[in-house]
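Incident log, structure service

09:12 report received: a user says their structure output differs between two submissions of the same chain.
09:20 pulled the input from the user's history:
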Amino acid sequence: MVDRLIVGLGNIGREYEDTWHNLGFYMLDAVAAQAGVSLSQIKFQAFFAHYKQDGRTVYLMKPTTYMNNSGVAVQEACAYFKLKPEQLLVIYDDFELPFGDLRYRDKGGAGTHNGMKSIVRALKSENFPRLRVGAGPIPDYMSIVDFVLSKIPPAKRQQLPELAERIKTFIAKADSGNAAKAVGDLHAHNLTTLKKLAQREAYSAKRELK
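09:34 re-ran on a clean worker, output below:
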């Protein structure tokens, strides 16, 4: 089995703790805790750790370069360990997804996310897996920058452990060799998916009554 690098994006510093832009950091901390490792080592301009799983090494990193230069740290680690972009998994916040939704893709553009833009530039590739953590919608009265750097409301912070559990389950299932099922199960629990299913069931029930 091939090695893997899992990256959580965010900004270092106490002023950025519990902000939307640090959702990637939060989720990676949860992955590290489950693996029984601590992201306490500084390496490749990042908080770094690694562990063995089923014959492969899984590297974890939280870049200390600040969000807009995340690619510097990621490229440095990939070059050192001779990892291909396909061996990455980048976890990051996305205000274009509603809070509570998690979305996985094998590849694609960076969208509006500066951390992802930096990684694409550094690797000269968009062909790397990513897992977006829903942070939206942005309130009408806030700019994008003000929103992503704002604190997550307490009520929503209480839901983060549940989202972290879903991410850990997804990674474990994907690593077991059934990636397609892992992705399907991950998306099936999204609030938007559940809402659509409820709407379909309600529509079917109305038709049956007629």
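09:41 both user submissions now match this output. Likely a transient worker issue. Closing.
09:42 reviewer note: The chain has a mean pLDDT of 91. The longest strand covers residues 88-98.
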